[in-house]
Specification:
The chain is an alpha/beta fold. The chain folds into two domains: 9-97 and 212-265, Rossmann fold; 99-210, Rossmann fold (3-Layer(aba) Sandwich), CATH 3.40.50.1860. The chain has eleven helices and ten strands. It has a six-stranded parallel β-sheet, sandwiched between helices. α9 (194-201) links the parallel β7 (182-185) and β8 (206-209). α1 crosses α10, α4 packs across α10 and α8 crosses α9. The longest helix is centred in the first third of the chain and has 17 residues, at 50-66. The relative contact order is 0.19. Bound molecules: D-glutamic acid.
C-alpha cells in the first residue's frame, strides 16, 4: 500500500529517540515530508541480541516501505549497528544509519585523539563506532561505555534534575578519567539528556550528536539522486507507533521541540 506519505523520508527507532533526527531533518530539509515509526511496543532495542534487533528493524522497514518512502533512515544507533547492512541488502531504496555520521563528526572534533562513545549495551558491544572511527583514523583511541538507564529516563521524560545527573555522574566518571576530549552521544535518546551529560563531563569535553550529521548525509544523498524537494510545497509529517500513542505524543514533543500530533497506532 502506497499512501499519502509516498515520497517522504522514512525514519524509525525503538521509541521517541529518533525524533531528534527528525528535528534535524526538518531543520535542514524543510520541504521534505517525513514518516516516523517509533517501535514503542518493543523498546528497548539496546538490551536485545543482534538477531532480534535485525528482525525488529526489518519489520519497521516493511511498515515504512508500505508508506512508499523514498529514503530510509535508521534513526537508532543500536539498529544501525546491527541491521544496517541486512537492510541495505534487502531494500531497493537508499538506507542511512546514524553511526557513520556520528563517527565522522567525532573524528572532526577531537584534538587529543581520545574519544568516548556512550550508547546502549548492544551498540557498545557491537564495536561499530570503534570500527567506523578507526576506518577514518586508526590512531584515535576509543573508550566505550554502555549507559542503559538513559533510555528509560528519556522515554519517561525524566531528563533534568538530580536523578539524571547522578546517573550521568556514575556512568561517565571512568570516561572522564580516560582523558577524552570528545564524547559521542551514540544513542538517539541521549540528546534529551544533553544538559545532565554536559554538566557531568564539564566544558572541556565536546559532545557529538549524530542527528545533524545524519541530516546532512540525507541531504547529500537526495541531491545525488536528484530526489530532494526544493520547491516550497508544504511538507507533511506523520508519526506511527506500535504501542499507545498517548505518552509518545507527550514525551515526543520534548524531543521534536514541536507538537507531535495525530500519532497513529500500527500493528505489526
Ligand atoms: N535510541 C536507540 C539507539 O539509538 C535505542 C534505544 C533502545 O531502544 O535501547 O540506540
Amino acid at each position: 500500500m502506497v499512501d499519502a506519505f509516498g515520497g517522504a523520508i522514512g525514519l524509525f527507532d525503538s521509541g521517541v529517540g529518533g525524533l531528534t533526527v527528525v528535528r534535524e531533518i526538518r531543520a535542514q530539509l524543510p520541504n521534505e515530508s517525513t514518516v516516523y515509526l517509533g517501535d514503542t511496543a518493543r523498546v528497548p532495542y539496546g538490551t536485545k541480541s543482534p538477531s532480534t534487533v535485525i528482525r525488529y528493524a526489518s519489520a519497521c522497514a516493511k511498515v515504512l516501505l508500505a508508506r512508499g518512502v523514498k529514503l530510509m533512515i535508521v534513526a537508532c544507533n543500536t539498529a544501525s549497528a546491527h541491521a544496517l547492512e541486512p537492510l541495505r541488502e534487502s531494500l531497493d531504496i537508499p538506507v542511512l544509519g546514524v553511526v557513520e555520521p556520528g563517527a565522522q563528526e567525532a573524528v572532526a572534533q577531537t584534538r587529543n585523539g581520545r574519544v568516548g562513545v556512550i550508547g546502549t549495551l548492544g551498540t557498545i558491544r557491537s564495536g561499530e563506532y570503534e570500527r567506523a572511527i578507526h576506518t577514518l583514523d586508526p590512531a584515535i583511541e576509543v573508550f566505550g561505555k554502555a549507559c542503559p538507564l538513559f533510555v528509560p529516563l528519556a522515554e519517561e521524560g525524566w531528563t533534568c534534575g538530580s536523578v539524571p545527573r547522578a546517573v550521568a555522574d556514575q556512568y561517565l566518571s571512568e570516561l572522564k578519567r580516560a582523558g577524552i576530549d570528545t564524547l559521542v552521544l551514540g544513542c538517539t535518546h541521549y540528546p534529551l539528556l544533553k544538559d545532565a551529560i554536559a554538566e557531568s563531563v564539564g566544558d572541556a569535553i565536546t559532545l557529538v550528536d549524530s542527528a545533524a550529521a545524519t541530516a546532512c548525509v540525507a541531504r547529500e544523498t537526495l541531491d545525488a539522486l536528484g530526489e530532494r524537494v526544493d520547491d516550497d510545497r508544504k511538507a507533511s509529517h506523520a508519526f506511527l507507533v506500535s504501542d499507545s500513542p498517548d505518552s509518545f505524543s507527550e514525551v515526543g514533543q520534548a524531543f521534536l521541540a514541536q507538537p507531535v500530533d495525530h500519532v497513529e497506532w500500527v500493528d505489526f
